[in-house]
Amino acid sequence: MSMKRSTLLLMMILGACSSPPSAPDGVTAAQPSASSVVLSVLGTPFLIAAKIPVCTATLLVAAPVAGASETVASGAKARQILADGVASNCGPLIC
């Protein structure tokens, strides 16, 4: 048991010593301003509150249309368009 603990402790110590890779020469990452952070924190609940009903409405429309697209020759293109719309409206929250 002590060997497992020693190994775990060593892994934690080595993990703490690692640093993120450095940026290439001449490239620096911009730090977000305090106002953009505050705006993101305050705006996220409103984004989620708006995204849930929009996603639900999208799925309610897209599901039957996707089923109906099976009956036409260009159904694959219609399903791709529907998939893009669902991904756009129900995809990850990007602020």
Topology:
Layout: H1 2-17, H2 34-68, H3 75-90
Overall description:
By secondary structure, this protein is an all-alpha fold. It has a domain at 58-95. Helix content is 71%, strand content 0%. It has helices spanning 2-17, 34-68, 75-90. α2 runs antiparallel to α3 (75-90). The chain is elongated, with a radius of gyration of 24 Å. The relative contact order is 0.09. The mean pLDDT is 81.
What is the end-to-end distance? 46 Å
Radius of gyration: 24 Å
Strand content: under 5%
Mean pLDDT comes to: 81
| CA-based shape | elongated
Report a brief summary of the structure:
With 95 residues, the protein is an all-alpha fold. The protein is built from 3 helices and no strands. The longest helix has 35 residues, at 34-68.
Characteristic terms for this protein:
mainly alpha, elongated
